Amino acid sequence: MMQRRRLLARIAAVAALAPLAGCGGWRLRGTRRNVLGDVTRIFVQARTYGPLYSYFANELSYINVGITQDRSTADTVVELTDERYDRRVLSVDPDTGKVREIEVTLMMGMTVRGADGSLVSAPENFRWTEDFVFDEGSLLGTVETEAVLRQEMAKVAARALVLKLETIKFPRKGASAR
Fold first, then answer.
1. Residue of 176, 167, 177, 173 lying closest to 36 (CA atoms)
2. Is the dihedral of CA 75, 72, 67, 168 positive or negative?
């Protein structure tokens, strides 16, 4: 009986202290604040404003950063350049000579500037590559597979670009960039 009471007392103590222990530093996505310092509004300059731009805007919203359409109200400017997809044959069937595997590559560049136009992060080029099996018997399915693959690559790229932004040390508001 005494051991049972001790066990219940320990369980109650652990249950009472658990909320005070915190979460070990992790937070749910979307609950982070001030990840980019004083940056709360970004102006995105891109040649096209397609799916990658939309996913990029979503990823920024998860860290409480908004995209502004007015460059003069932006805290920083992100230039997305040379966004392009390449497609190449990886392998062919040795008997029939028909395509077996295809590789799809997404390439792009990113430059980050301050609101005053000063360079915050030098231009960087990024590359993501995926491959898939080409099924000549299901051409429609294969075309759909490639479209979905490109969409998923755009999502991964958008997340990677935001993670890259998180590594940049932005100048404080009112301070000049070095």
1. 167
2. negative
Q: For residues 103 and 90, is the Cβ–Cβ distance under 8 A?
A: yes
Which portions of the chain are predicted below pLDDT 70? 1-2, 7, 14-34, 139-140, 173-178
Q: Looking at the domain 28-167, which fold is it?
A: Double Stranded RNA Binding Domain (3.30.160)
Q: Write down the domain spans for the chain.
A: 28-167
Question: Pairing relation of β-strands 119-133 and 99-114?
Answer: antiparallel
Question: Looking at the chain, which runs of residues are DSSP E strands?
Answer: 41-46, 66-67, 76-92, 99-114, 119-133
- pTM to 2 decimals? 0.74
Distance (Å) of CA 87 to CA 82, 114, 134, 135: 16, 35, 12, 16
